[in-house]
Amino acid sequence: MKLIVTDIDKTLHEVDFKEDDILMHVLRDANMGILAECGGSCVCATCHVYVDQEWLSKLDGIGDDEEDMLDEAYEPNGNSRLSCQIQLSESHDGIKLTIGPKWD
Q: Fewest CB atoms within 10 Å of the CB: 13, 39, 79, 97?
């Protein structure tokens, strides 16, 4: 299964994943520029991604902790998500996303 990822430099990548992988881990291991400073604890927002609008309905809803952290994210918008909170499945094969803006 594959992710379609646009990195910080606007370069398009296909990244493999397996059922039940956490999106943040996949992106970090593929060197896609995710900082993931808290290691997936949902306390830093440095794993921020923009999920293409057409794919948002295929993701679980945003929990309170994620919503609170997205308020602290750099340049959030309506399709912002924290990649540490997304567990991937077969239904996400081909999902398109963009790595969030670089933290200064």
A: 39
CATH of domain 2-99: 3.10.20.30
Would you say 47 and 34 are in contact if contact means Cβ atoms under 8 Å apart? Answer: yes
What are the sequence ranges of the domains in the chain? Answer: 2-99
**Residue closest to 43 by CA, chosen among 5, 78, 71:** 71
- Would you state the structure tokens that stand for residue 91, as one six-digit string? 């239904």
What letter represents residue 62's amino acid?
Answer: I
Please report, in angstroms and rounded to a whole number, the separation of the first and last CA atoms in the chain: 33
Rounded Cα distance, 24 and 36, in Å:
7
Cα–Cα distance list, 97 to 8, 41, 56, 67 (Å): 11, 21, 10, 18
